[in-house]
């Protein structure tokens, strides 16, 4: 009887060991009876954990875009009687990749809420004063260098606030709400015209400090745009 009991215990022990060895590939060297689970490594091909939009600055692993100024362009014949939001910025290339200021459209969208509908704004015309600057925005920025740029967006109105949404690989990395009421207003005057004189230059000294006064930052991540 003792012999049979010993055989039963031995068989039970072997069965338990064989079951423990099956279907538990994640268990690694259990020390002193504690189960250690192998760590799981995940990777993302969309946004970088370093990507952000803070203090008027979009930061990714490749570049930095600092918003320098914002003005409202008054409606006129040259703007198709539409008001525009003019955004001036500086783009810095942090890598050896080919980056150019014209790529701002891949990293910044602007929305305006109309009747509870958050509508994406279309890009607008190039202002007369910005034509030379915009013509250079297809030039590549060398590593660790910065280049100024400008972009305009067609506003639905000049009352409702707008939301600047920064993104990387079509994933939202942050946003800022801008109150339009206190932004400087300029006209799209043609400097080559002898009949007009641009008297609005004194109103265009809107630096990042002024922008920050009218912006409410809210970091939001991995929201598909």
Automatic annotation (TrEMBL):
InterPro entries noted in UniProt: DUF5067, Immunoprotect_excell_Ig-like
Residue segments, region Disordered: 189-225
Species for this entry: Candidatus Paralactobacillus gallistercoris
Chain ranges of the DUF5067 domain: 40-166
Domain of life: Bacteria
Keyword Iron included in the entry's annotation: no
Gene3D superfamilies assigned: 2.60.40.1240
Transmembrane stretches, start-end: none
Residue ranges, compositional bias (Polar residues): 211-225
Keywords from the UniProt entry: Signal
UniProt name for this protein: DUF5067 domain-containing protein
Signal peptide interval: 1-20
Low complexity bias spans: 196-210
Keyword Signal: yes
């Amino acid at each position: 009887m003792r012999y049979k009991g010993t055989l039963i215990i031995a068989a039970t022990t072997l069965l338990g060991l064989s079951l423990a060895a099956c279907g538990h590939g994640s268990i690694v060297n259990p020390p002193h009876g504690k189960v250690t689970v192998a760590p799981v490594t995940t990777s993302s091909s969309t946004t970088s954990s370093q990507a952000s939009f803070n203090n008027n600055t979009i930061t990714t692993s490749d570049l930095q875009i600092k918003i320098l100024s914002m003005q409202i362009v008054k409606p006129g014949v040259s703007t198709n009687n539409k008001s525009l939001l003019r955004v001036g910025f500086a783009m810095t290339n942090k890598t050896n990749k080919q980056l150019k200021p014209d790529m701002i459209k891949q990293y910044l969208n602007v929305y305006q809420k109309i009747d509870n509908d958050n509508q994406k704004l279309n890009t607008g015309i190039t202002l007369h004063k910005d034509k030379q600057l915009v013509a250079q925005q297809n030039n590549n920025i060398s590593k660790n260098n910065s280049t100024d740029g400008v972009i305009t967006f067609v506003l639905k109105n000049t009352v409702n606030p707008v939301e600047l949404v920064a993104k990387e690989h079509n994933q939202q990395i942050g946003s800022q709400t801008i109150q339009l009421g206190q932004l400087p207003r300029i006209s799209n005057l043609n400097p080559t015209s002898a009949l007009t004189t641009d008297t609005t230059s004194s109103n265009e000294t809107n630096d990042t400090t002024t922008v920050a006064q009218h912006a409410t930052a809210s970091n939001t991540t991995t929201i598909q745009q």
